[in-house]
Amino acid sequence: QVQLVESGGGLVQAGGSLRLSCLVSGTISALIDTMRWYRPPPGKQRELVGLITKRTNTDYADFAKGRFTISRDNAKNSGYLQMNSLSPEDTAVYYCNANIRYDGTYWGQGTQVTISS
Questions:
Q1: Count of alpha carbons within 13 Å of 53, Cβ hemisphere only?
Q2: How does DSSP classify residue 44?
Q3: Which residues of 30-69 are buried (b: 16+ CB within 10 A; e: fewer)?
Q4: What pLDDT score was predicted for residue 40?
Q5: What are the pLDDT digits (tens) for 52-87?
Q6: N or C, fewer C-beta in 10 Å, the chain?
């Protein structure tokens, strides 16, 4: 049974940084394809933060470019979202998902990120 667990959220001041992790269990790394990070800011619809392919090609939403970096460690079945220069507008629950080959797409439970002004 595939499971995704995010961690690393918390409360930081504006201008600070956080590093979120997404651990994938129940499968082998060779079957983990694209990983994505999403957030639904309060009162808004879910939006894509960025993604990383199995070959570590990345793409970001405009608001994330230059501030956020997505990476992955296939040996650890993990993906990461490094967030710098955070602002209160970045406050949201952040979710990761992963495409698992021959299986489907799975979501984590989310981790809360709160940025104080």
A1: 4
A2: S
A3: ebbebbbbbbeeeeeeeeebbbbebeeeeebeebbeeebb
A4: 87
A5: 999 999 999 999 999 999 999 999 999 999 999 999
A6: N
DSSP letters for 6-41: EE--EEEETT--EEEEEEEESS-GGGEEEEEEEE--
pLDDT of residue 43: 75
Which residue type occupies 62?
A: D
Phi, psi of 74 (to 5 degrees): -65, -30
C-beta of residue 17 within 8 angstroms of C-beta of residue 83: yes
C-alpha 101/C-alpha 34 separation (Å) is 10
Mean pLDDT of 32-57: 92
